[in-house]
Design brief:
Distance between the termini: 46 Å
Strand content: 25-35%
Shape: globular
Oligomer: single chain
Helix content: 10-25%
Structural class: mainly beta
Radius of gyration: 20 Å
Strand order of the largest sheet: 5-2-1-6-7-9-8
Order of helices and strands: EEEEEEHHEHEEEEEE
Number of helices: 3
Amino acid sequence: MKILDACCGGRTFWFDKKHPDTLFVDKRVMQPRTIGNGKNARTRRCLPDKVMDFRNLEFSDNTFSLVVFDPPHLKTLGANSYMAAMYGVLDKDTWQEDLKKGFAECFRVLKPDGVLIFKWCEYEIPLSQILKLTPVAPLFGHPSGKQQKTHWVTFMKQTPPTEGTKIFEGKNSSLRKTYEAAVTPETCEYMIMTPSPLHNGGMWCAEPYPCKFHGEWKLNR
């Protein structure tokens, strides 16, 4: 399989709901149910290929070229409601940690330079709060829907740097520094550089990013 839908639900936005290169997983299972009557009747279901929690994906690192992540976005649904059964519900106390783990797992199983498509409806929680739950900066995104509350956001998993890799060299004389990665394979993180003009006098700050090795950034002076 080349594509993973990590929280597939009813596969409602998929054109091909049985795409041959896609593995659909979800921790929920709901047999087909018809809601409404007459022309308003709709059949809803949640039948994943594999029952799996996005916080603990049972795949090896660097498995998929594309990952789709459309987690539950509401935290005020009743546990036994139809909406909760169909779309899932966030835990009121642990939703931030749950989504943080979900992002980390999606990036873990994504191949280097692979793409993550993230969907979020900010009916209750603004997208800005959600993006703080992953250190990976999004590439681009777009709001949709009548109220522009549904957001589609695109990420790419950066290829881990190797020792001596030049990360950034500023054109401005005050930023003309070269960063390199000092790899420590026995640990489980590495650092990526992100622009942070409000800190360190405009220098780039290091943030943790989950991966299979650890690189400690050092500044050549």
